[in-house]
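Appendix B. Extra example for self-study. Work through it before the problem class; the solution is given directly after the inputs so you can check yourself.
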Amino acid sequence: MLIINRLNQIEAKTIICGAVHKANELGIPMCISVVDESGNLIAFERMDGGKVHSVTISQDKAFTAASARKGTHEFNQACIPVHENNLFGIHTALGGRMCIVGGGLPIVSNGKVVGGIGVSSGSPAQDLGCAQAGVDAFTHNYN
Amino acid sequence: MLIINRLNQIEAKTIICGAVHKANELGIPMCISVVDESGNLIAFERMDGGKVHSVTISQDKAFTAASARKGTHEFNQACIPVHENNLFGIHTALGGRMCIVGGGLPIVSNGKVVGGIGVSSGSPAQDLGCAQAGVDAFTHNYN
Amino acid sequence: MLIINRLNQIEAKTIICGAVHKANELGIPMCISVVDESGNLIAFERMDGGKVHSVTISQDKAFTAASARKGTHEFNQACIPVHENNLFGIHTALGGRMCIVGGGLPIVSNGKVVGGIGVSSGSPAQDLGCAQAGVDAFTHNYN
Amino acid sequence: MLIINRLNQIEAKTIICGAVHKANELGIPMCISVVDESGNLIAFERMDGGKVHSVTISQDKAFTAASARKGTHEFNQACIPVHENNLFGIHTALGGRMCIVGGGLPIVSNGKVVGGIGVSSGSPAQDLGCAQAGVDAFTHNYN
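Solution. Structure tokens for the complete assembly:
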């Protein structure tokens, strides 16, 4: 039997809190998704004014980061089609659910991925900043 | 110009709070979704132990209730194929996103639908009970 | 943090072995899927001659049983549209991925669902028989 | 009447064995799919720790390789948008099921494609290495 560690609801809320705080600093209402280690949604908040398409994209960023165990922005650079690494095209997999736009990060505890966060409604850099703030809130409170 | 009333994030959290309180009474960890008047997700919580398929079904219940402006359980009885009302089959619309299983309710303010709640992981009756508790929390606090 | 128990590969192979043995007794080549506790595929075997549509259906049965924590045949009876339990219509949820045809069973260890098995290519009763044989192989070897 | 040669279950298991052996050498738990000459799944193994998104991507790589009768990495370079071969865009076909990321190879016997293997969870080069090891195991044992 495998023993798996998974974010609980309180931890997920803490992560969203951190991302919301950063979004308020930026003045951009965000959609924020937190998933478990298998990519399934645990918690979601669309801040007042968050964009409709970001409901899905934030979930897909969180899914991709948790499953691939790396930031979605790392995929983004590796997928530039001139690179000869055979990775271009991953962004259309799973009906486009694989999201390579910056703003998704894995949540790591004791070296294991226990979940993921995805943020969407700003620029990729702004989304990534909020996702990182979510990760930092987790690390500060639980690691 | 149309003026639309739409749930905000604090109201959505209040609604989820009401549903969570009821779910804890029942001892059943639920997935709870709140959508706006257009059916787009505002807030979501998967209580620790909530079922994976309920992530989507709770969203679909909330979407259906907000968009159709009635409880999903009302659809259910009307869809029984012996009824001669030509409604049978609505449950496969939108790729199955129209959900006719009990547990989705519209959120109404001043006679207008301003959002919806969908609950899933228990029986339809238990899900409906938690959805109603969410509606009641809204009514108690804001109406 | 939540601590989750999940089937490993050797356990999944044991479960498939039990189902294959029963399928050979019945003389029906089956498609057999084993998923983890989150419904994601771990192992799959299409016995020589297994049906093509069963590739997907066996996966969906395993997913449904693991996520709903009960046999798909239990859903089947509860979904008969004359029943006034508001459950009719669940079978079209998730784009039809919720499978209510007999042949899916959860895998339980120490009272917790750790995975699921789904079998397809025969009648629902035959599929269920093979799924049960898979569960029995797990119980006999690991519980 | 057409006479079709198709991988059987024992051959599929041999192919997976070869890929697993290579994955263990690399220290990367992989998802490995084997399909028949029509692209339909015969056998699948998610090694303990294999990634969730790779469940689908490995199947799509195997499907693409068997159907297109060439390695998915060959598609990858041909799809780079600067190439004037009108192939760019094939990666979004079939809802993204056409996978042009390296790691899918056809299985060939007597000059005919009899199936395909798809591997996912590492880099495209690592995935391709494991897929090749699966092909080699087949060739060594059956050709």
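Self-check: The beta strands of chain D are 31-36, 41-46, 104-109, 112-120. If your reasoning did not lead you there, revisit section 3.
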